[in-house]
Amino acid sequence: MRDFSTDHRWLSINTATVRKSQGQDLPLPQILDAVARHGIPAISPWRDQVAAAGLKAVSAQVKALGLKLSGYCRGGMFPAVDPAGLAAARDDNRRAVDEACELGAPCLVLVVGALPGALAGKAAHKDIARSRQQVSEGIAELLHYAKGQGMPLAIEPLHPMYAADRACINTLEQALDVCDTLDPGRSGALGVAVDVYHVWWDPKLQAQIERAGRERLLAFHVCDWLTPTTDLLNDRGMMGDGVIDIPRIRGWVEDQGFGGFSEVEIFSTGHWWQRGHDEVLQTCIARHRSVV
Amino acid sequence: MRDFSTDHRWLSINTATVRKSQGQDLPLPQILDAVARHGIPAISPWRDQVAAAGLKAVSAQVKALGLKLSGYCRGGMFPAVDPAGLAAARDDNRRAVDEACELGAPCLVLVVGALPGALAGKAAHKDIARSRQQVSEGIAELLHYAKGQGMPLAIEPLHPMYAADRACINTLEQALDVCDTLDPGRSGALGVAVDVYHVWWDPKLQAQIERAGRERLLAFHVCDWLTPTTDLLNDRGMMGDGVIDIPRIRGWVEDQGFGGFSEVEIFSTGHWWQRGHDEVLQTCIARHRSVV
């Protein structure tokens, strides 16, 4: 297991972590400058932030600053109620692959979607098995396109509390079942993003990380689970402030040969998004060295 | 699959569902009277409510009203940081078994506990595997006692969002692994409580219900998952107001021969606990007939 205690060469910042600074939106160009200023070598940007700043401009800035990417957030949201919706998701996901290529991302992270309409508060149906079938079909189709572009796809199993509205792939085992079906040869074109927030509770976690192996472990995300957690989406904790044994999980991942970045992804309306982004980045560096 | 549409003979009310009426605490004796007045045949009371009203008095009232029980809530909370804590949990669980016997419950429901201290906001450690080991040992010890009293134990796998503070058994598969280890003969002394709120998301749910079989399916709880869910504990929905395909899951359970009560367990600070309990019970009856 790598020693993170003396530097932060393996730290990446998911740009949602500093999406807001002191409660105000922080544009992506400022985020990139701040990350580089703190000597953080990598980022994982969100599509909406990239779109707001302009893909070409972001790509140029990333290169000028010498930043690497640990992933691109995100593709997915495959399920729909009709062929037009499925086609729209397909087209949008292809654009996400193209953007990931332009930015030099090592993978496109997939938050696969769930019951259509649920995220807006009104699910069109209750058939999660149907959504899961649409997800498998959507990934299969996108995989064909992404292979052509040389862009690996990383399925991110989301915590079961998001099964209704954000992702109906909810365990690492389930994600790997999809990988085995669609990429039995373990080509490296399809794998998983392991976010400790989503999977820490899983009694089969260690076994499934071993099953994933090096070829399927495409990204590793960290934050922490707070007790109590006051919001299902935006109350993630800074590493060390919660109950997740992050080094243990990182050890399992690295035992498989994973040698990529440790990406900090924290959504925190009440706490970290109220702080200044420099303080947040300094804290990420300190915690990366001490508790990850 | 039984037809629930014409009557409510298989309805049970978990007494937490009407713990409050119009925002005020509703004592258990009044709950029991109201349940009986609505022709609801069964309840599942909580220990704190029973303690407040007095065990003997509650037992007498239950018998006088001709109510049955669908379970007793709850034993468990096994993990602790030291031998004294483990012994205290053991003793308290034996008392819970005794109370369940006095009340004529068909099973004692177990919410097994998780990281010691987490429920109070400060976990004593982050070793969920250690808690899981303590849970297995605690159930093994309690099972010996409960068998002597003739009281079946029903492990309730809780949604993974409770893995830190309430229960580190989080899937039906995991609960059944414990059952298979401790009761390989499927004696009926150890099984599971299937609450749709906790398990609806699980891609392996149908297969694990089949694995459980009639001997292990000791209780069936219903409510609904709302989108959005605004609180991790107390924002459960009334059946039909959320995204859970309850009849499908009930069908799987009944395919195994389950013929017990369908128990409504709703914690709802913002909505149902603000309504009058008669309205809540009427709604439970209506939804039991129409969407369960």
UniProtKB/TrEMBL annotation, chains A, B:
Coiled-coil region list: none
Organism the protein comes from: Hydrogenophaga borbori
GO molecular function: isomerase activity
Every Xylose isomerase-like TIM barrel domain range: 32-277
Keyword check for Membrane: no
The protein's name in its UniProt record: Sugar phosphate isomerase/epimerase
A matching Pfam family: AP_endonuc_2
InterPro entries: IolE/XylAMocC-like, Xyl_isomerase-like_sf, Xyl_isomerase-like_TIM-brl
UniProt keyword list: Isomerase
